[in-house]
Amino acid sequence: MAQAQVSPLADQFLINPFLTNPAIAGTAKRAPLSIAARQQWLGIKGAPTWQSVTWHTSLNAKKQHFNPRGFVNKGENAFGNVGIGGGVFNIKYGAISQVGIHIDYAYHIYLGNGRLSFGLAPLYQQYIINKSEFILPDGNDPDPLIDQEGKEIVHFIDVNAGVHYFSDKLFAGFSVVQLFNSSVSFGDLSFPTVGEFSENPWLARSFYLYGGITPAVSKNFILEPSLLLKYNRQNGFGFQVNLRATINENFQAGLLYHYKESAGFFAGVRIGDLIFRYQFEAPLGMAVLTRFTTNQVMVGYLM
Asked: Which position has the higher pLDDT, 191 or 91?
């Protein structure tokens, strides 16, 4: 796993930013229902796969006023102050699976010419080890030190939290995923590192800081450069640079670069109330061979 890769949620930033920050709940023009799937490093046995279903909306929607970026402030009581949402997810890599659900709440206030929202999302997940999928060091020969029968399941309750600001010209946010640091080790089955049992970076507390500008090049064309910084203790710092263009609110295309990890492109189209998005990434450096690409798709419905 590349050092810069902190969490699979960071890789959903262009496809579905709501997964990165619960404060985004209720900031969309409609109530998006999104179904997404990601296959990382296609062709590598046991490479991470990821599926999710999310939905979020704003209460009191009849009083809202919008532009392509979301809400436009129109005075007192012009929008609902409360956003709600939630989602389910399944992550699998090798013999490991993570299955979970989160319920999101956000509260929105005016700040200058934009809006500031605060989000909180209780999270429940299961960390599952399927022992029958262990790859033994000596091929198929039984290993008396490794039990290959049954499953190990650990239950976690955690919290995601964040803040998000946006206006007609810019957006920015900060979030903490798995605030309680749901790291886990399994006694003698763990791999000792520097005198301590190793921790799974996808269960550790992760921090995200992002921002971007949204200048309107013309009435129907928006160019959106953005930057995402990410950190957790196991994998350190990483960053992602994005450039996305939106045409007539119906077509999107862009480029992305993950520092020392991958580069790729993004594309999306809206047909009526349906949204289709696709993201492609090719690895950089020697950590993963370039032929093992990553593909991600999302289908959404604007309720």
From this structure: 91
